[in-house]
Amino acid sequence: MRRTHEDDLADWLAAGYARAYRTAYLLMRDARDAEEAVQEAYLRVWRFRASLPDGVGREPWLYRVLVNTCYSLLRREVPRRERNSGPQFELDDATAPEAVGESPEAAAVASEAAGAIGAAIADLPEHLRATVVLRYWTGLSEREIATAIARRPGTVRSRLHEARRRLAMDPRLASLVAPVAEEVR
Amino acid sequence: MIDEEILARLLAEHAEGIPVPDSAIGSLLAAAPQAERASAFARFSRPPPRVLAAAVTVVVVAAGVWVLSTRSGNQSPATRKRASAEQVTPSTTGAAALAPPGAVPGGSGVGLPSFQQQNPFATSGTTPAARHGAVPTSTPLRGVASPADNSRIVRTGTLDLKIARGSFGQTIGRITTIAAAAGGFIADERTFESATTPTGSVTIRVPSARFNTTVNKLRLLGKVVSASTRGVDVTGQYTDLQARLHAATATRDQYLVVLGHAVNIGDILAVQDRIQAVQTTIDQLQGQINELDNQTTFGTITISVTEPGPKAKPRVRPHHPSGVSVAWGNARTGFSRRVEGLISHSGSALVVLIVLLLLAGGLRLLAPRVRRLLV
């Protein structure tokens, strides 16, 4: 049976659901909102699938829709009031990925650092948060991020720099910055 | 500056720890056989027969409910009251006539059971509708027009008052007090206080039950130049809006039921699209109902307040002077005119005088030389 463009798209959407959901969660910090955002973004992608580019061009397009949807939901008044009622997940022993080969102490330190980085990123302004998440979690290139957030690559670089600068000043991440500073010295 | 690799690694660790909920899209796409998905997508371009049949059923049911509701809204008050009483009591006739068939899952509806029989994907478990908590409950529909809602009257009134001079500010204050005492409020206030006659217009909203009492109190504030009150019965419109709201809600619930039985992405997305459209209609209807509620709960009275204008200045009687005074006036005028003339012509005379003096001086200097030449 011959596979159609829609078959490919459906498979691609299904395969990328977890990553898209986690991206949305990192942007919105609320499980319900993240789920709603991903579903809404998928719905839009599906509705306009005829104009969706093929191949690698799809991903920035999808994340552009997703980021815009997240922004729309974040600015919506009612969910903002109810956002605190949504479930929020914390990294714990049950959900944290197992660090194979690491000692329990090292795993605990790594888990704590991961939690700290999540909290620090959550405190970033929306535009910086989106850039950081798309770059360091979603793994998009600067050019793809520029497409995703509808800005120039130079703006993306500037935002990444600013975000990293702010993260470096975050006291929760002091333990991550210090070794690098020592290395520089 | 934080290292990029560390940042990426820790962020990945953090993100991987975020549990991903069982998504309808993800899980259904993952579980659905490839062949069925292909056929589902092929059907998506033209509406799937099952969804189409369900949608047609929903639309027909909703239209039926709307027509019945509209008829009940257009009936005479007595008939409407009887009808509403039938709806409130759990009798089979009224409820069956107004409740959309299939609104109660597995209940006595007409549309849903037939759909369930035809729908081979009728499964239980985690579905989009269930996750939204939108599976209709067995709560019967409220009556379209309950007896308490039968009287919906928008009351408006205008009063044009002429008040005593200098009491403008006091009157505006009294209007505010009267509105507050009636449980109302000032909706709009415009005053214009010029040097002559201050005027103003105050619009107050008072509970409809105290509308007449408030108008009577306001009448005592001054002389009533004109007054008018008006009551518009919007019961039919209100009932119609409520009926349409119930119908739209039932339609949305039906779509949610359909969504609950959908098993492929094409069906889910198509139904979600329609749910959004119906939800927009519901929001619009709810807004109109709220506006009517507001208008009928509070009556609107607009009071125009005017002070009388300032007292007219006494007219100066014409004065007829005597002959001597006229002559004295003429003399005074003539003298002043002559003096003014002298002053105004003095400039020219001065110039002439200067020229003559210069000529005389010149002649005096030249005269001896001329005489010497001639001699």
Describe this structure in words.
The complex is a heterodimer of chains A (185) and B (375). With 185 residues, chain A is mostly helical. Chain A has 10 helices and no strands. In chain A, α2 runs parallel beside α4, α4 (58-75) crosses α8 (142-149) and α7 (126-137) packs across α9 (153-169). The longest helix of chain A has 19 residues, at 104-122. The radius of gyration of chain A is 18 Å and the shape is globular. Mean pLDDT of chain A is 76; it is low at 83-100 and 180-185. Chain B is an alpha+beta fold and 375 residues long. In chain B, α3 (34-45) crosses α12 (265-297), α4 (49-74) runs antiparallel to α11 and α5 crosses α6 (92-98). Chain B starts with a helix and ends with a helix. A 5-stranded mixed sheet of chain B has the order 2-3-5-1-4. The chains are: A mainly alpha (185), B alpha+beta (375). The interface between A and B is large, with 50 and 36 residues.
